[in-house]
Amino acid sequence: MNTSIVVIPTYNEIESIGTLLDSLKALPVDVLVIDDGSPDGTADFCRARGIEVHSRTGKLGLGSAYRAGFALALSRDYLHVIQMDADGSHQVGDLVTMMDWIGTSELLIGSRWVADGAIENWSKFREYLSRGADAYANTLLSLGIKDATSGFRIYDADLLKKMDVSTIKSEGYCFQIEMTRRAISCGATIGEIPITFIERVMGRSKMSFSIALEAILRITSWGLLRLIGR
What we know:
Radius of gyration: 17 Å
Strand content: 15-25%
Number of strands: 9
CATH superfamily: Spore Coat Polysaccharide Biosynthesis Protein SpsA, Chain A
Shape: globular
CATH architecture: Alpha-Beta Complex
CATH class: Alpha Beta
Largest sheet: 7 strands, mixed
């Protein structure tokens, strides 16, 4: 068994996930797909390629998928847990670089906003939305992380155990911010590694008004709690 596992949440990613799975075969990692009952057959597509799939009964949310995947990874004694998107936005070449940094920090974040980080094919609106979310989170929560919303990460398993991930509540991309906040509260060392984020060319984005609203409300709530010392 490899010491690292890649956890990939999916919902209707049959058009894009094949390229990622093929590229991951070259790395010393196991792969676990958490599929939320994709109507397009993503789960069967992955199984046909020899990938382990944990199927769920419906679209239960990104945060829920990662909580399930992390729990399975920790139960199997992996040393490192990697999270990636299935839509082609996260590059395996960047993962290779990130893995070279394993051991230097308990949490490694693939960052778009540090020096040498980049994005491709994003509209200005999406860029401003992402940068704005990070700026808002840092202003209210003093995270000190340039890309707290990034979903491209490597966690030390021991850190995930200390973080008690089952109690993380967020479901949308706010999940990444809450995980960052929890890691900091556990005293984790965090490193940001520059990546090139490429907007999906196939399939549909999962971004929605409700996901953005969840982030605003939760960050504001945490900021207020921090202000009153809780």
